[in-house]
Amino acid sequence: MRELHASERFEAAPSQPFSTSTFENFDFFAAIWRRRALVALSVVGALVLGVVAMVAIEPKYTVNSKVMVETRDARVPELQAAMGRETVDEAVVRSEAFIFLSLDVIERAVRGLGPAFFDPAKLAEFEADAASPRTAGATAALSDRQAARLAEDVRDRLIVSAEEKSYVIDLRYTDEDAARASGILNAVVETYIENSATTKAKSNVAAREHLEERLTSVRAQLDAAESRLADAMLRVGQLGGIERTTTAEDLTQLGKQLNQLKEEAAGYRADLDAVNSFAAGGEAVFEFVSFDAPQLDALMESRAEVLRQLGLARAELRPAHPRRATLEKEAAAVEKNVERELLQLRANLSSRLAQNDRAQGRLADERRRILETSSDDVSAAVDLRQLEGEAETLRNLYADILQRLSAIREYADPDAWVIARARTPERPSWPDPKVIFALGGLGGILFGCFLAVLREMADTRVASVDEVSSIMGARSVGMLPPYLGPARDETALLNEINADPGKPSFEVLRSIAMRAVSQKKRPDQGVVLSMFSALPSEGKTTTISTLAAIAARDGARVLLVDADFRAPSVGDLLGLYTGASAAWPDRADKWRDAVRVSDVTGLHVLAPSQAVHDPLQLPRQEALVRALREARSSYDLITVDLPPILPIVDPLLLLDEIDQIYFLAADRRVRRRELEEAAVKLSESNAQVDGVLLTLVPAQKVARAAYYMSNNYRYAKNSYSKRKTA
Question: To 5 degrees, how large is the angle CA 688–CA 691–CA 697?
Fold first, then answer.
């Protein structure tokens, strides 16, 4: 056996009930399926609770009613509408919906129903004097306290909603009694309609009174305006007639003409200042206010171009150059033309400014003359026109008020009507069996899944090969199904292997055998391989027997040794002893006589069929050790089936004779604590685990892992082929 270096020693991982690997390898649906009984029990319990709730909960009945509200101005002659203000339909519908929740309306409806309509127990509860409650037989009317408390109770149960973009108001009421629910809701609706009619009549009366007062006031103002207008007309006639006087429009026209002349004069002065500024040596920026000067604009553009060319010539040409002399002459000529044009513009502007001043003088003299000679006529005309305007405004207002007043009538019908009355329901609205059972079933499923996940997370049993690898400190080799095959004899096992030699579980065992044979220290010395487990019934015997059969089928010389003296099972598994029994040889040199050779696979088997009561007896132990040592020279691979290491110490006594150790853990059968104890035992014995396998894994889980592994293999193969081609 190879030596164990200090760097290869391992220690058991601490126990973690909720380790990281538990979350990483957690399969939700697999956990739910494993705990399906718990989920089913939760669903049944929830449904039972639903049935109990349906029996225990007092039934409630919900009734509905719909009311249509009319919002046209012709049907809503309120005070605001009568005064000419627009009403908003949606606002009216919302305001009418709030009226249904008014305690005044609800209390009047409750009083109209009377005490006989309500539950006597509730009336007694609402009564101030609990010692002598008022019942239906004691009084024919509700007390003020009872009516107020009942109104509050009805409002709490009443739901009013206005449908969007509609004039329909939807009302819902819930009560423990079906007849009482429909009666209360219908009473509230009827009270609302009666209240609407009453409010309409009051509004009409108030609107009529307000308009009549306003009409009287406007009539008095109109009479006064007519009287002032007659006096003004008489005054105008006494002054000699308005046709001989200058009207206010004439004075206004004179004022407008005078202002226009002043604006023109300001423009002339601004243009004249610009011309004088340029003549004095300023910049030539001409934007005339009063008129356009296209000729001057052309001269200024020509001047700028000549000056630009002259500047370039001065910078590039000598003074005596002909081109420069020509440009100097052109510049002088342009300057003279500009100066001549400016002089002409200055004269033109001065002439226009003088004409403007004379025109302003004439208009001012005319306005002064008119004001001095016709002030009385003008004042009378202005007053007359103002009085005529006031009188016309008052006449229009008086006619408008008369029209509004004639539109107001006393309506007998309200602005709302019932389009769907509340009917007595036959079935309660709550509890609803469909809702109860649906919620119960859903709640039971969710609660059951929660319990299943919680139970799964609290489960410390190993569920992944990586978890076993982490605890044992060794590499993970693979997963094996519960039974490698239905075989119970060597022929059937070989048939199983031949039927599907590429089966993932067979490939895992074949890789272990090939690795063991390839690591022989000497060509003439075989390798001793064994598989350990923490507990019994973890598939150890089946796994190592199948591994030996696969290696023998592939051409290796293999010896399978059953060293589990307390409960030997290799012979029964391979069907070697049918009607006969074999015991372990008493002498150490007789072990070869006990070896059975298979005619089917060529596998050599050293397997007793009889249990030994004292397996640690020295002669028998020495015979086993001698058999393992001597078998190295005759076999390529010696596989040893040993008992579990936790309850029995036998495997630890043979560690010096074993070259490779593989540790097996059954899926969801062995706990992490037990694996940690096994790891501690192996660590204390200076044993190194070459690999770990997870056995008794469900076939679906193995197939899923094999699928991923095969996909990864194909991907790696394709990548390698591409690199090789490149």
Answer: 140
* Residue whose structure tokens are 């064994």: 530
pLDDT value of position 17 = 39
Indicate whether this model's pTM tops 0.70.
no
Contact 477, 661 (CB under 8 A): no
Burial class (CB in 10 A: 0-12, 13-18, 19+), 422: buried
- Containing H/E element for 562? strand 558-562
Half-sphere exposure of 179 (CA within 13 A, CB side): 5
pLDDT at 344: 83
Q: At what angle do helices 36-56 and 433-458 cross, to 10 degrees?
A: 150
Q: What SS3 state is found at 68?
A: strand
In the block, residue with structure tokens 């002030």: 375
Beta-carbon neighbour count of residue 33 at 10 Å?
Answer: 13
Task: Enumerate the β-bridge partners of residue 558.
Answer: 637
Q: Are 270 and 289 in contact (CB under 8 A)?
A: yes
**Beta strand extents in 386-509 (DSSP E only):** 416-420, 476-479
> Residue 308: CB partners within 8 Å, gap ≥ 6?
none
Q: Do 650 and 643 contact (CB within 8 A), yes or no?
A: yes
Supply the pLDDT for residue 695: 92
- At 330 the pLDDT is 84
Interatomic CA distance for residues 396 and 402, integer angstroms? 10
CA dist 447 and 39 (Å) reads 8
Is residue 664 helix, strand or coil?
strand
pLDDT at 189 over 90: yes
Distinct helix (H) and strand (E) counts, the chain: 23, 12
159: phi then psi, degrees, rounded to nearest 5: -120, 120
**Alpha-carbon distance values, 439 to 42, 49, 174, 449, 450 (Å):** 13, 11, 22, 15, 16
Pairing verdict, β 604-606 and 596-597: antiparallel
581 vs 512: CA distance, rounded Å: 31
The residues, any chain, with a CB within 8 Å of residue 128's CB and separated by 6 or more, are 143, 145
State the DSSP code for 60: B
With cut-offs at 50, 70 and 90, classify the pLDDT of residue 682.
Answer: very high
Residue 676 has pLDDT above 90, yes or no: yes
CA angle (592 as vertex; 597, 531 as ends), nearest 5: 70
Q: Please answer whether residues 527 and 519 qualify as being in contact, where contact means their C-beta atoms are separated by less than 8 angstroms.
A: yes
